[in-house]
Amino acid sequence: MKRLTLLLALFTSYSVTANAVETNITILGVRFNNSNAPRAQVLMDRVATSWPTSTGTTITLANGGSPLYVPTTLSGSTEVEKMDSAKLIAYGLNLRNVHAADVIFFFTDAMVAQDNPNQGICGWAPQDNWTASGGTPPVFDDPDSDGIDLAGSEHSYAAIMDSSAACSSNLTLSLHEFGHLFGGGHEDTGGHDYLYPDSFAYLIWNPWPYEFYIRSNLHRSYWVGENWWQYSDYAGVADNMRALNRTALSVANYRALYDLPPSPPPYPPPPPSGCSLSTPAYITQTLIAHCDPPTYSHYFLTWGDSCPSQTSYYQLWVEQPVGTGYLPDSTTSVPYTHAWVSGASGRVRVQACNGGGCSALSPDNVLLVPGC
Amino acid sequence: MTKSTNATFAILLLAPLVHAQELPELLQPVDEGKAQRLVQYNSPWLQAELYSAKRSRIVMVNSNPLIKDDDFTVTLFNGTAPLQLTQDSIQRRADTIAWNAVVLVDLPEVLRRAGAKQTVLLTAVAWDTDEAGRALVSFDNRFQFSPNWTFDFFDRPVLAEGQGLATGPPPQTPKEIARHKELLSLNKHVFYSVNADFEMLFPRVTYRLVPLKYTPKYHVLFEVDPEKIVPILTDRSPGEVVERTPADQVKLSNYESFIRSLPPDRDVLVVEELP
């Protein structure tokens, strides 16, 4: 049983800041084992440096502009399996909230196509929003009073890319996948120039052969499929400026800015207040939801500590499946944590620790039962 | 046109050429013996990387112009004229530099009048080294706690001598302490690797600069053979049927056969210099 199937995450009490409409798209790069770090950086930089300054929306690369390394190998081999695995890990680590990331780029090694395991595939950016069939008037699904449509914010925010050599010839891979997140599609065999009309991301046949090679302040291009996804404002061309203005504004608001977590307590800790390091007890569990995210049941755990002033951190111990013995898991500085379980049921116990050592394990435990 | 106008025109044409001779060169040669050893050390990864190459050479990169924002030249292969590059825009971050360069080439009049310019994005990534000579990408090695924190014999956190108040709490858990010690022991930003694609228009040729996977201080530069570009699928939309031409299918099969014929990539260390 993979230990990853029970995730314990540290959550502090983030609170959503009431914000006006954001005009910046924050992209977080996340790379996993076997990805190519320099090439992942190239793919991120291509998007950031190609973005037009005239749209009114800006792009910021999170994590200091570089992809965040998560030392985990994604499960599965297809683009769908790896995307599911990557999203689950990002969710467990709370990455979108911590980095206020509107969009995530996942970087991995080689992938094969879901419906043809013999065929390699370089990327995927599922877009379930703005997908009305051709002919539908191009309107947003559910715009708010600011014209912002957040319907896709929880499922159409991520792209996964192969950073290995075979895909390196596709210089525009990250631009291509980013274009999908704005609703841009491939050629439509039904006679339409686009797949996702509600995004306003119209697909234009290449009217000029050099856009990709020569960028000017008059003509810039994002590439989708064999054609150019253009955002030119010159007359006679379908209006992708709207995609780059209005759709981009919605994407920029996928994740609001969050308050930073409260500062940790000053060091060294305050002098003893008459008590000594104590063994935690009275662990409680609250089921938040089953299948949150899919295959996982989401719990919230709390425990009591009769002398918190002497505790630097809590070490969680997990036994999964039950009866196999407890192993150390994550740590937290607060007497609560979120936990996710799938596969087999698992038990959790806690000990309190400081620079002088750790307490015994809590006498009681909680049983987390997967129910998805 | 008067004589004096002609003279001015000639001087303007010559000026960039004279200037180019004084500029630093991005690509530095590596002697043949060392290049052979680098090829061996990075094989079979390098064989896969060079599948689409028409010709290649091992080079070092002089990253100084990227760090100092200087113009520079790029001499791709013997017999190719040096390209002169100047900065168009730059994103300088803690561990990376995205240097967007304009290549000073003559463009057709119609393009020049449209304000067109030929650009190349050079992405420089900093690398750290540890005591064993391993190379580690710097953006994976950022301090989570102030580097002013060190440890005494008993692993208790202490502030480095001469430092005043700590700039935050020290690492406390055994895992945090071990990681902080590891980071303190690294040599930071020892060198930069650079990725770039030089896409020339007249004639239409692409040259690719890639750091070697296991010795990223050194790079391979290769000219892409358009006939051998792998027609791998970019992605697909749900329900979309991808139909390949017979020629593309053959190309893909050839590539897959080639990859299968390679021995598994060896598990060697990523190092600054060859052992």
Question: How would you describe the overall organization of this protein?
Answer:
The complex is a heterodimer of chains A (372) and B (275). The radius of gyration of chain A is 24 Å and the shape is elongated. Residues 1-5, 9-18, 132-140, 188-239 and 258-272 of chain A have low confidence and may be disordered. Chain A is an alpha+beta fold and 372 residues long. Chain A has 2 domains: 20-252, Collagenase (Catalytic Domain) (3-Layer(aba) Sandwich), CATH 3.40.390; 281-368, Immunoglobulin-like, CATH 2.60.40. In chain A, the strands form 5 sheets. In chain A, strands 2, 3, 4, 5, 8 and 9 form a 6-stranded mixed beta sheet that branches. In chain A, strands 15, 16, 18, 19 and 20 form a 5-stranded antiparallel beta sheet that branches. A 4-stranded antiparallel beta sheet of chain A has the order 1-17-14-13, with no helix packed on it. Chain A has helices at 37-50, 79-92, 95-98, 173-181, 241-252, and strands spanning 6-9, 24-31, 58-61, 68-69, 103-108, 111-113, 116-121, 123-124, 158-162, 214-215, 221-224, 227-230, 281-290, 297-304, 313-319, 327-332, 336-341, 346-354, 357-358, 366-368. The longest helix of chain A is centred in the N-terminal third of the chain and has 14 residues, at 37-50. Helix content of chain A is 14%, strand content 27%. Chain B has 275 residues and is an alpha+beta fold. Chain B has 2 domains: 23-132 and 189-261, no CATH class; 142-184, no CATH class. Chain B has 7 helices and 12 strands. Chain B has helices at 3-22, 32-41, 45-49, 64-68, 109-113, 174-184, 246-261; strands at residues 27-29, 53-61, 72-74, 83-92, 96-103, 117-129, 135-137, 149-151, 157-159, 187-200, 205-211, 218-224. In chain B, the strands form 2 sheets. In chain B, strands 1, 2, 3, 4, 5, 6, 7, 10, 11 and 12 form a 10-stranded antiparallel beta sheet that branches. In chain B, strands 8-9 form a two-stranded antiparallel sheet. The longest helix of chain B has 20 residues, at 3-22. Chain B is globular, with a radius of gyration of 24 Å. Residues 1-18 of chain B have low confidence and may be disordered. Chains A and B meet through helix 1, strand 7, strand 8, helix 4 and strand 10 of A and helix 3, strand 5, strand 6, strand 10 and strand 11 of B. Strand 10 of chain A pairs antiparallel with strand 6 of chain B, so a sheet runs across the interface.
